[in-house]
Amino acid sequence: MTLPPETLASQRTLRPHRRRGWSVRLSCGGLALLIGFNVLILAAVVFGLLRLDPAQLDKIPYLRVKTQTPSLTPSQVSTLTRTPTTTPTSTPQPLPPTLSDPGRILPTPTPYLNLPSLKGGILILSLAEGVDTHLFVYQPESLPLTRITSGPWDDITPALSPDGKRVAFASNRNGYWDLYLLELATGEITRLTDSLDYKASPSWSPDGVWLAYESYVNNNLEIFIRPVSGDQPAMQITNNPAADFSPAWAPAPGRKIAFVSTRTGEPDIWVIDLDKPDESHFQNVSHNTQAWETHPTWSPAGDSLAWSSIENGVHNIVLWDSTRPEVPPRSPGTGDWPIWSPNGDALLTTLLTPNNTYLTAYPLRTPGLVFPPLPLSGPVEGIAWGPAVLSWPLADAYRSSVQLTPTTLWSPILTPLAGEVATDLPAGRLQIVPLPADVQAPFPRLQDTVDEAFLSLRSRLATDLGWDFLSSLENAYVPLTTALEPGDAGDWLYTGRAIAVTTLPMNAGWMVVVREDLGAESYWRVFLRARFQDGSAGQPLHSLPWDFNARFGGNASAYEQGGALFKAIPPGYWIDFTKEAIEYGWERLPALSTWRAAFPAARVNEFIHADGLDWRSAMLELYPPEALVTPTAVVPYTRTPSPTSRWYQTPTPTLTYTPRPTYTPVSPSPTITQTPLPTPTRTATLVPTRSKTPTRMPGPSLTPSPFASQIPNETQAGH
Question: Using one digit for the tens of pLDDT, what is the confidence trace for 462-484?
């Protein structure tokens, strides 16, 4: 059926006409919400940029500031031009390095947004260089690391005078530790003290007239003050059985001196108020029983005090506001030896790793780093920062030190096989060579590329100590077929690149170890007692050693912690064996996780000469890869035809024939057992009962009973 066109037209529905495109209507509240959302996103982006490290910001091209900064490699000859100002402002030319690592190129710091400038002042560092320690000058933005003292001695703990013209430091250049003055303009050095007692860590008074310093008297470290002119005798301002050291004189008015003391049983930061009498002028400002504090330093304004703090393996810089002592200290970042910039906007500090030292700086008003960590040639023994006055070019007195190139401490020499022209070792393999006959060890051998490093370290250490410590080793090279302690299957002693020094001097008091926690790992610094205790060798200890024998003293806490700190710092002069070993390439190892329960797991006496190799690569220098796939089985000398019985193994039962009857069949054939026949029993209801009164009967009755036809009686049964 088809509808007419008029009906179809009437049934059509008219559709409304839509305009093409979109339109958005915003109310006042919606507009405000949109603006607030955009501001929130922008704030999140800015906050994220501020939290980025300088190395990450450098990857963003729009935030990088294009400036040309000089190389931070040490220079041999200064090429700065003359300027009428008192501080260097011109840029030196990059020159070859003169430190102990000639191939090391230090990274160039790049200034970033909102970071303080480090142009003001010059750094004076006491830096280890080989086996000796010397003074260096450095400016992060204009002056490379430049040596200003040299010689076969140690110059440590520099302090810059308030006017920037002189540097006070300690040195053993005359055979004993005394205080000296260096005139920066001329390079002239003047001796301030002349005695056998150890003296170091000088600190200037604000007027530049007095010096505070530490001195070792009566087998203890104490704080003294003396005039720079020497017209008055030194005055002792601390007198306590605990060790007091590392003084830091506050700026004007200069009535306070901060120092480190072990009066509470651990290193803490104390302050002396010179205006208060007697013992009331001593104040403990750190108040942290869980941390070890060292190296206090005052801000240029004298209102804040900074120091380094080690707690649970974390090394932090702590800032304390002396104007508000009730406010807890805060931490701007990690570090180990802080020093303030001359304008007080930044803190420069050293960063310690197990075997290396770095230098960096933190801004105090913004997060981040002023420049990335710079590797140094060795440990830092002192640091000062101030508006120093230097003449450019440097005076002639500095020329010999600037142009000096340190000699190599040792060089590897490959030893050919005895009696052979060419070695029969495969390509890339090295051999194990014997040590001198006077070295005692279970296997007195080392790998061919590290034996010279051991012999050089032994010779130097014997000269410093006065006795031959490395003539007896607990272990050297260990063959692959020799088993060590449990858990030492991958020990470096198998590579021939490790030594384990003897720990017997610990029992005699000639060896102590200081615990150093770096992150989650524990390391140990070994100190050896010098033979001559007249001050001509070594330094007094500044840290409390670790006592492993405290585990057996009945103290539950010491037992769980694997020991405890010494009650007091041991007296005498000591040589830092760990420091000298690192200079010759022998690095220390961290303790195993079980060291608190087992002394061998502490690894206080093991040092390795890795040369950048991992354990497997070092093993492949001696053995083929097949030898490292599985542990090598030790073949017995005689073959055993039958398995050897062991007490912890249950013997396997075997089937044996036994003639005894058993309830458990031993064979599949059944056992025939004879079954007894049933025995007839009497039933009271079926057997007639007899009367108790006997009745005479004439004879057996022949009359059948009513039950006779069913169950027979006894007489019938018998028939």
Answer: 999 999 999 999 999 999 888 88
Contacts of 367 by beta carbon, 8 Å cutoff, 6+ apart = 50, 51
Number of H helices, E strands in the chain: 10, 36
Q: Quote the CA–CA distance of 502 and 505 in Å, as a whole number.
A: 7
pLDDT along the chain (719 residues), means of 10: 49 49 68 86 80 58 44 37 35 35 40 59 90 90 88 94 93 94 92 93 94 94 93 90 94 90 91 80 84 92 91 89 83 89 89 90 84 89 88 84 87 72 66 93 94 95 95 94 80 94 94 92 96 93 94 90 92 95 94 91 94 93 85 59 67 64 54 52 45 44 39 39
Residue that is written with structure tokens 């000859």 in the block:
77
Global pTM?
A: 0.72
Neighbours of 335 (CB within 10 A): 28
CB 136 within 8 A of CB 127: yes
Assigned token pair, 459 = 């010779």
What is the identity of the amino acid at 470? L
Length of the chain: 719
pLDDT, one tens digit per residue, over 315-360 is 999 998 888 877 888 888 889 999 998 888 888 999 999 889 999 9
What residues have CB less than 8 Å from 574, skipping those under 6 apart? 512, 527, 528, 529, 530, 538, 539, 540, 541
- For residues 241 and 262, what is the distance between their CA atoms, to the nearest angstrom? 9
Query: Greatest CA separation found in the chain?
Result: 171
One of 2.115.10.20, 1.10.10.10, 1.20.1440.230, 2.120.10.30 is the CATH number of 50-90+124-402, namely 2.120.10.30
What are the Cα distances from residue 596, in Å, to 592, 600, 717? Answer: 9, 10, 95
Q: What is d(CA 576, CA 351) in angstroms, rounded to the nearest whole number?
A: 19
Could you tell me the residue ranges of all domains in the chain? 50-90+124-402, 432-628
Output the CA angle 201-207-209, nearest 5 degrees. Answer: 60
**Residue 191 one-letter amino acid:** R
Q: What share of the chain is helix, strand, coil (3-state, %, to 5)?
A: 15, 25, 55
